[in-house]
Specification:
heterodimer, A: about 1000 residues, alpha+beta, Ubiquitin-like (UB roll), FAD/NAD(P)-binding domain, 7-stranded mixed β-sheet, 6-stranded mixed β-sheet, B: about 190 residues, Gyrase A, domain 2, Alpha-Beta Plaits, 2 domains, 6-stranded antiparallel β-sheet, 5-stranded antiparallel β-sheet, globular
Chain lengths: ~1000, ~190
Amino acid sequence: MSTRLTTGGRLVDRSSDIRFTFNGKTFRGHEGDTLASALLANDQMLVGRSFKYHRPRGVVASGAEEPNALMNLGRDNTHEPNQRATTTELFNGLQATSQNHWPSLDYDIGALNGLFGRFLTAGFYYKMFIHPRPFWKHLYEPFIRQSAGLGRAPDPETRDPDTYEHFHAFVDVVVIGGGVAGLQAAKAAADSGAKVLVLEQTAHWGGRAPVDGGSIDGMTPGEWVRKTVEALEGMENVTLRTRSMGAGVYDHGYLLGYERLTDHAPFMKGPRHRLWRIRAKQIVTATGAIERPLSFAGNDIPGVMLASAMRDYLVNYGVVAGQKTVVVTNNDDAYRTAIALKQAGVQVPAVIDARQMGGGALMEQAKSLGIRVETGRAIAKVKGGKRVTGVAICAMAGGGAMLEEIKCDTVAMSGGWSPVVHLWSHCGGKLTWDEEHAFFRPDPERAPTSHDGLPFVTVTGSANGEMDLKSVLEGADRAGKTSGKAAGGKPRRFAPPKGESAEEMPLRPVWLMPENAWDDLRMKSWLDYQNDVKVSDVQLAAREGYESVEHTKRYTTLGMATDQGKLSNINGLATLAASLGEEIPQVGTTTFRPPYTPISMGAIAGEARGEIFQPIRKTPMHAWHEKHGAAWEPVGHWRRPYCYPQQGESKHDAVHREVLATRESLGLLDASTLGKIIVKGPDAGRFLDMLYTNMMSTLKPGRCRYGLMCTENGFLTDDGVVARIDEDTFLCHTTTGGADRIHAHMEEWLQTEWWDWKVYTANVTEQYAQVAVVGPNARNLLEKLGGMDVGKDMLPFMAWADGTLAGFPVRVYRISFSGELSYEIAVPANLGRAFWDRVVEAGKEWNITPYGTEALHVMRAEKGFIMIGDETDGTVIPQDLGLHWAISKKKEDYLGKRAQERSHMADPNRWQLVGLETVDGSVLPDGAYSVAPGRNANGQRNTQGRVTSTYHSPTLGKGIAMGLVHNGPDRMGEIIPFIRDDGETVVEARIVSPVFFDPEGEKQNV
Amino acid sequence: MSDPVLPLGGTQYEGLVDVREAGPQGMIALRGNLADASLQEAVTSLTGLPMPDMRGAQVLGESGVLWMSPDELLLLVPYRQAARVCAQLSEALQGQLALVENVSDMRAMFRLRGTQLRDVLAKLAPVDFARDALPVGELRRTRFAQVAAGVWFSDDTTAQVFCFRSVAEYMFNLLCTAADPDAFVGFHAG
């Protein structure tokens, strides 16, 4: 059984008592435990079921690389799937459940898949489920989705109660990894005067060194770590962060750090995660190495663990995974586990060493402790179901003929180490194959480079393939000095600390155990635990012609699970290389992409949730609209009232009422959101002549003109009324959504093409609140407010004037988007609400009615006025809309002119704007197409037009619409069929003029 | 006339730093040739402050000159004087290419004060807020989360933040969120 020993465990506080639940059962642990160590201490070896075959799985590792011990953590609002038990710090009340099992972890029906395992090989889905086609959607996919998978997605109705934030940090040197290499590199870089940030993903400094032993400057590694951290803490130019992972390295020294602030103590207040968005001049990756499993039959049975992990549990938590452990290895390091276990009182019946000659000093030490060592031997297979019961031993050379069975309850395996090269590789760092250690290591000659072509990432420690304390510390010191200097510091000439550790004999690369394992053994030799990929799968892929490691990865799903193949990648590609008869470096690795381990969605979103999910732009009158029951419509980032439903009134009814009240008497609109751009200078007129299709330079001061703007491709992009303020100054109104875009458009032309034109622009949209007073009584209202002459002689249609109304400083534009007598009144924004209130008060006698965007739309449609975004969609030119009158024939050029002369633009077959009236008076569906006889090459029905705007007109009492129709203006009176959303029902509509109301403009010109 | 209405009516919050809506603040946008002697003369005489260097913020009380871009300044004047100064400036720049606009109502301003100021700001803007990177008297135009903003330090523990009026509420809520007393960072020494 796995249990906690009575002594030991450098990270746990044995006086503490922590309670947590696993699958509803209560367990106890200590402060400092991880969920994995606490489960093992409670003899909970079985932690989950595998992805495809639902095989029982136990903890295999002790850190970020863990593939098996994935948990659902929390419940309801805090439920989070796929959390690694090995990196989850224990806290009181922690709730964990295992994943991918039904009905229970112990008795899983899905395990039957294992019986069909022979058929669920690599590429199975592709081969099996491709025919007949419809079966995939209705039969295969639902079944596979039920059976395969890992964690349960959170209930969409739950809401994450935690908060998250971002933090932007700028430093000279970031060190990723707080092991002895990272700490020494940080110290050397900080000594050079550089501003240093150190990120350590766990809660503890020192990495593996305190577990693995040796000495540094005559101290134990643990003592040295404590002293060095103390020294770094005392330096003003150093920031140390634990529980902070370097997640990704990007161009130009950009780096993402992922800090987990309260995962270990959810009762703490404050943000749960913090995403560090770091700019560093230099990055040092001291990310360590990960031990590789060995591929032998049954290597996934609970109780088979990495040798280093077993040592971690023992030294860090005082936990042993079993009472009787067989160690199997191809290198010296695993002997450390054998020695540690033996010294802790665990039985170690044998060390199985694949090397004919065995190892060096560590092997001798193990032997002297009385441990039996078998060299040139291998594990043929592990026996057991939910728990290891023994191992069959065979010769390493051969197919797996059993020589002996050894009873045991745990197996500690070590296939050598792989440097964690992920962060080095994210931004283009290249790798080189190290023959001696049989691993890929960073190639310092091909480091990631920055804008200046110089390296900005330095790698050190075992991440750089340095496997003994002496070279680790010397390398780290060098890396710290190099990066400190590259970041502008002055390295000090301190000597590096002296590291000493046991000398080790070379390993023997072992990619399959035994060497020529029989078929049935290879089919039980797991490479990727999380995605259930075995040696036989990769070999099958190779036989089927998969040569590229990237293709093989996708075909077999090797390394594609949430652990991204941290344990399986190298073993997998070595297996592929062997099958292809190629060298490992020729096969190469798959691509390492950020993040190193998954980071939370919350951290990515940061503060953007709730009321600050997105900025909502509010006009000075926003609160009034809110108070008066506005139904909102998002327009750009603004919220504009769509209409103001009164009690019991539907939106449709409200719009109806607002339109009629405005047409009959007086309406009021908050038009503050319209863009207002000042264009000033001697060349302003010339500039606007280029921007608008019509002539603006001839506009007289005091007057307004409606204008169209096109892109250089000729398509309509914005429209609005331009007012000439004085000889040199224009004020251009843009659409609500167009203000920033059009201002940028102006600046781009001024700064890149017409840089010598004497023009300045300023976007003053938010300086003014703007109120439209609309309807037959508009003038009466303004006269009642008093202060300036708004009569038709002083202020005719399309004129503007400065003055005061009711004591407010105003600029009044007499313009109309409704066809009514109408004034738009601009006041300084701080007075907007007061002015609005004053107008509402004064307008009571005329039943003044605030109206929203929908009434605005209806009224403009009744008048046949186009709306950017309805009648235009980026493919429409002014000529399509019958706006020839707004296109100057006199001008030599304007933006879009040449494009509009291209053959397709001048084609008479382009669809053109017309009005549409349904024969039965109903409202046409928005966007509906009119069908024409015949079908196109794709078998779709031919079309001859589409609806661009459609409303019920309260004024006319029927449905009205505008649309683009083939040869439309020539087909007045013709009835054409439109198709409803169901794709079948026909609605007949008559082609009419788009101006439905007051075509002579008598109402607006009074 | 009554007092100018602030976008949020003068709201405040106390957390890692004190956040207080500031203003009203007279503001005049000036675009022109900043190297021109008569422009410089007009700016310095009307504000009583020297021309700022690139990215500079010359501010004293309610008056100031902010360097916005190579051809743009933002003059700060007492709110009630904005229209008059605007007219005087236009007059002084008569005959040369320049744009002068009274934009006193266009923005919201916030004054942030406290030792944790640099950490709070660094949560929202992609800016190096270290003392040597953004010293007192230097303006940074940037973004705060999803909106455009400007910020300068008037002393080591006081910063002025401005944004457009329509997003004043978003900005205030952002600043309060970043200043949550439980969200201490400890990166920039307090």
